[in-house]
Design brief:
The chain has 232 residues and is mainly alpha-helical. The chain has one domain (3-194). The chain has 8 helices and 3 strands, in the order αααββααααβα. It has helices at 3-16, 21-26, 31-46, 60-75, 80-103, 115-131, 134-155, 168-231, and strands at 50-51, 56-58, 163-165. A 3-stranded mixed sheet has the order 1-2-3. α5 (80-103) packs across α7 (134-155), α6 runs parallel beside α8 and α7 (134-155) packs antiparallel against α8 (168-231). Residues 202-217 have a biased composition (Polar residues). Residues 218-232 have a biased composition (Acidic residues). Pfam families: DUF1614. InterPro entries: DUF1614 (IPR011672). The chain crosses the membrane at residues 6-24, 33-50, 56-74, 86-104, 110-130, 137-155, 161-185.
Length: 232
C-alpha cells in the first residue's frame, strides 16, 4: 500500500477523534469536509486515471482532488492577500521542486532518502516559508509537488510519454509535503505563542509589582502627612 494512503488514513483517524480539530479550525475547514476530501482522495487513487491526451492522464485521488481542495481553500480564504500569497507560494514551491529534480542525483541509490521524499520535504519547507498561514502553507505544499511534476514532465522530457499526474510516488510526495507544511506552521506557531504568552505574562507581573510599589509609596506618604498633622 502506498505510504500516502497510510498517511491519509492516519490523518483521518486523528480528525475523527478530534485531535486535529484546532488545526482544521485555523485552516477554516470543518471535520466533515476534511474527512470527505480524504475519503475521495483514497478511493480516487485506486480508480483508473482520466486521460487528457494519448500520453498524458491524471489520477483522481492524487491529481484532481488535491487541485479541487487547493482551489476550495483559496476561494474560501477571507483576505485577498492570503489568496495571492498561497498562489505565489505554490508557484515558488513548484519551481523549487523542479530545480531539485534537476540538481539532485538521478540515481536513487546515491541519495540517503528516496528522491520523492526529498522533494516532499523541500516543497513542505518552501511552502511553510512563503505560505505563512496554515492554509497557505498547505495549499503551496500540495500544489508545489504537482506544479513541479508538470514542469519536469514538459520541461525536461519535452513531451509527456505515458505520464500520470498525481500517480504513485507523486501522490505520496503530495500528501507528505502538505502534512510537513502544516506541521511546521503548527510547531513554530505554537512555540511562538507560548514565548509571546510567557513574555506577556512576565510584563504583566512586572506591571503589577510596579503598581504595588507605587501604592505602598503612596500609603507611606499619606501616613507621614497624617503623623505631621497630629504632631501639630
Amino acid at each position: 500500500m502506498p505510504f500516502g494512503i497510510i498517511l491519509l488514513v492516519a490523518v483521518a483517524i486523528l480528525i475523527y477523534f478530534g485531535v486535529l480539530h484546532r488545526v482544521l479550525d485555523r485552516m477554516k475547514l470543518n471535520d466533515k469536509t476534511a474527512l470527505l476530501f480524504l475519503a475521495i482522495m483514497v478511493v480516487g487513487f485506486f480508480l483508473p486515471a482520466i486521460p487528457l491526451s494519448r500520453s498524458l492522464s491524471i489520477n483522481i485521488g492524487g491529481g484532481i482532488v488535491p487541485i479541487i481542495l487547493a482551489l476550495y481553500l483559496i476561494v474560501t480564504a477571507d483576505e485577498a492577500a492570503e489568496k495571492i500569497r498561497a498562489i505565489v507560494a505554490s508557484v515558488i514551491s513548484g519551481i523549487a521542486v523542479f530545480l531539485a529534480g534537476r540538481l539532485l542525483p538521478a540515481e536513487p541509490d546515491v541519495m540517503i532518502i528516496d528522491p520523492l521524499f526529498a522533494f516532499a520535504i523541500i516543497a513542505g519547507i518552501v511552502a511553510y516559508i512563503f505560505g505563512r498561514s496554515r492554509r497557505g502553507a498547505f495549499i503551496a505544499g500540495i500544489m508545489g509537488i504537482l506544479i513541479g511534476d508538470l514542469l519536469y514532465v514538459f520541461g525536461v522530457a519535452g513531451r509527456p510519454i505515458g505520464t500520470v499526474i498525481g500517480g504513485a510516488g507523486v501522490f505520496d510526495a503530495t500528501i507528505i509535503s502538505g502534512v510537513i507544511a502544516v506541521l511546521l506552521c503548527e510547531i513554530v506557531g505554537e512555540t511562538r505563542e507560548k514565548l509571546q504568552g510567557g513574555t506577556a505574562k512576565a510584563n504583566l507581573n512586572t506591571r503589577k509589582q510596579e503598581e504595588a510599589t507605587q501604592n505602598i509609596d503612596t500609603q507611606d506618604d499619606s501616613t507621614q502627612e497624617g503623623d505631621e498633622k497630629n504632631e501639630e
